[in-house]
Known about the structure:
- By secondary structure, the chain is an alpha+beta fold.
- 16% of the residues lie in helices and 46% in strands.
- It has two helices and 13 strands.
- The longest helix is centred in the middle third of the chain and has 15 residues.
Amino acid sequence: MLSRPRSALMLTVALAATALLHSASADTSSALDLPTTMTNDEAGFAMSYPPTWGVTTYTGANQIDFNDGLTFVIVDAIELDALPTSDPAALLELLVDDLQAFLSDLEMTDLPDQVVGGLDAIGISYTGTDEGLDVRGTVLVMADERYAYLINLEAAADEFASYAATFDAMVTSFQRGLTE
């Protein structure tokens, strides 16, 4: 079992999450059936997830870690006042620096622009090696007038495709602006 902290913008924002990657069966949840929703009341965002997944929230950080033991989805809402910039492209560059610190053999591809939670999002897909395990992931970054939102989806490289529909459904379910 791998267990190590990950931060969305290490050195810039003090955030921590634990990504657990270990042997487990592939995701069997239906992409259309995400009946469980977790809401972060402080930052006013929510995301639905499969009921078999665990959820961890972090005190003092507007962060939720959805995890089934084999894969994870981390959502961070970072107040813009705590960041050096509100530009999603610059924030994505900071996140890439963080990924380079954790993953060897990192390779990235830009994703087409999209809309997530009503916000224009930019992102990358990536592959790399994490303590001997080949991983594949996607990072999306968007910002509104108060928060930068970072969504990181990662799984073992050979299992990533089996999670694609669930990842898509989770990203589609993302809502923000639930509180003012």
